[in-house]
Amino acid sequence: MKRALLILTVLLILCPRLEARPYKERAFQEKWCRKAGGVMEYALPDRTRVDCVTPEFAVEVDFAPKWAEAVGQALYYSIMTEKRPGILLIMEGEGDRRFLDRALRISKRLGITVWTIAPDDIIGPGGDE
């Protein structure tokens, strides 16, 4: 029993922190991509998938703290699709503003268009879906 408890403790320490999010990335992706008239999960020849491809953009969708990763993916998808790079950042709270500011700073220089989406955009401010 002690050994099992020790193993569980080690696993919890070594595993990445699990974040409880009320909505998955996919919910934001579906809402935005449908509204933008795009195609979700557009498969590239190397078997990577673009979150949303519109007539003009290849868009990476991610939570705001992963802004830097989104920049790289958007640029790669842009090259592979010959479309303009775009990022849709999921803003879950006021603390995410610092990530948006960073994304906007680098995106301006690299020619990446940035949009934002929040839980209220999915459920509405009163909690209605």
Question: Your description of this structure?
Answer:
With 129 residues, the protein is α/β, with parallel strands linked by helices. The protein has one domain (23-123): Trna Endonuclease, Chain: A, domain 1 (3-Layer(aba) Sandwich), CATH 3.40.1350. It is 45% helix and 22% strand. It has 5 helices and 5 strands, in the order ααβββαβαβα. It has a 5-stranded mixed sheet with strand order 1-2-3-4-5, with helices on both faces. Strand 2 and strand 3 form a beta hairpin. The chain is globular. The mean pLDDT is 87.
User: What count of structural domains?
Assistant: 1
Structural class: alpha/beta
Q: What overall form do the CA principal axes indicate?
A: globular
Number of strand elements: 5
CATH class wording: Alpha Beta
Question: Helical content, roughly?
Answer: 40-55%
Instruction: Report mean pLDDT, rounded to a whole number.
Output: 87
Percent range for β-strand residues: 15-25%
The order of strands across the largest sheet is 1-2-3-4-5
